[in-house]
Amino acid sequence: MGKAKRPTPDRILDAAERLFAVRGFYGVSVREITSAADVDVALVNYHFGSKLDLYTDVLGRRSQLLNQERLDMLEQARRESHPKPPAIEAVINAFTYPLLNRSARGGAGWKSYFAIIAQVNNSPEFGGTLMSQQFDPLVQKFIDALRDSLPGADDRDIYWAYHFLSGALTLTFAETGRIDNLSHGLCRSSDLDSVHERLVPYVAAGFRALCQRGRQRAAPPRRAVKRRSPARADGQTTEG
Amino acid sequence: MGKAKRPTPDRILDAAERLFAVRGFYGVSVREITSAADVDVALVNYHFGSKLDLYTDVLGRRSQLLNQERLDMLEQARRESHPKPPAIEAVINAFTYPLLNRSARGGAGWKSYFAIIAQVNNSPEFGGTLMSQQFDPLVQKFIDALRDSLPGADDRDIYWAYHFLSGALTLTFAETGRIDNLSHGLCRSSDLDSVHERLVPYVAAGFRALCQRGRQRAAPPRRAVKRRSPARADGQTTEG
DNA sequence: GTCTATAGCTTGATAGAC
DNA sequence: GTCTATCAAGCTATAGAC
After folding, report:
1. B133 CB near a chain A CB, below 8 Å?
2. Is A200 part of any domain?
3. Could you give the number of structural domains in chain B?
4. Residue among A169, A187, A233 whose CB faces B94 most closely
5. DSSP per-residue letters across A154-188
6. Using only C-alpha atoms, what is the Rg of chain A?
7. Which residue of B has its CA nearest to A165?
8. Structural domain harbouring A92
9. How far does the CA of B122 sit from the C1' of D10, in Å?
10. CA–CA distance from B96 to each of B60, B70, B193, B195 (Å)?
11. Does the distance separating the beta carbons of A76 and B233 come in below 8 Å?
12. How does pLDDT run across A73-132, given as a tens digit for each residue?
């Protein structure tokens, strides 16, 4: 970017984003942030308030923009398939593509943002509140779209299937390098195009398998779902 | 449990586990841990060494036991279907059931342990090293089993599909309460039996969809997110 | 094995000068 | 808007008495 000095609040947000991405909320001190941003310590308090206020502002800055993109893409998918509901692949693509695209090609700031999202989503302390605050209105709209695209599905199956999608997606954002170790370099955490190419069909198949379970419809879906094989090795039951 | 006082190292591990589960490695001080364990501050250093040593010991204590259970279950699935490889449902069940069962019915300590795993898995700092250290030898065996059960599959598809499973599973462990908010109480984070019932068919369908995909040619270049760009509403390809 | 004591720093937050 | 100065509290780690 240009050599012109960015406004102080932006400098603080940028530095905070970069540092929080690696060590999380508690692993970074306000002093480290202001030091990296090359501004005075007191300015965090002046511009943002508490450290937690800064943390939420770091997330909100990009979440807002992102949610608009995803909503636009969902609306477009709906328009294009109207009057029928779009295929779930299109819905899942609208949900995931803007994220993976920004992380892959949006620059270091976006990558840091997504790494923070991965941690927040999996935090017992912040996950329930912060994630819901940033994303739930949007997610509700996607849940509605999935419901339209999966007629007759049980809502509980849709919510859990969404939960699995959320976990797979945010672990991807963490880019921990673990799949690099595991695959001896065959796959790379940073290769988000490979992820996107696979995540959509994987998740779509999962949604269909769950939501078509137990349905006694005569009309055959596009693809038969294989019967589950009960591999309860220890004889215990897992269901109440 | 017995009223007899537990050994100091166990008291420290228990308290550390409980506190790390909520606020993570940096969000908890050694003093908080020893205070909760009702032992002296200096005893962490004496019994474990550094704070990070304690953290890894908290994980190792249960990971070891768990991995043995999962391996036993995998071997049993293999024996039962021999000479054919087991269905992938059986492999995925052996991978996930011991975890979800321990978290659901193993008591508070296990729940805390899994909450820590969720955070570590999604941590750019610890995810690559700590998770690999605790689980990769086991995961390699499961990857081999999946390969046997999915003849002809591309290894990259297997690794990425495993990655998606890992993310879905560990987000479940975090039990953040977010799905409770989202579903207005219809689903509950703590209802791990509902998770297990759905995770296995979901993941199995995802594996099959990925690994049985026709050999696809190179992906088309990525499109911009803007309105005029088609959103792949047809679901034919996921490359957006 | 346990505890006292402490070294040496760092923490988040802010009051008040400019 | 920025900076100096400071607060009261907390931090990890350890040496040394018992």
Report:
1. no
2. yes
3. 1
4. A233
5. -HHHHHHHHHHHHHHHHHHHH--SHHHHHTTTSS-
6. 21
7. B168
8. 62-211
9. 28
10. 18, 8, 11, 10
11. yes
12. 999 999 999 999 999 999 999 999 999 999 999 999 999 999 999 999 999 999 999 999
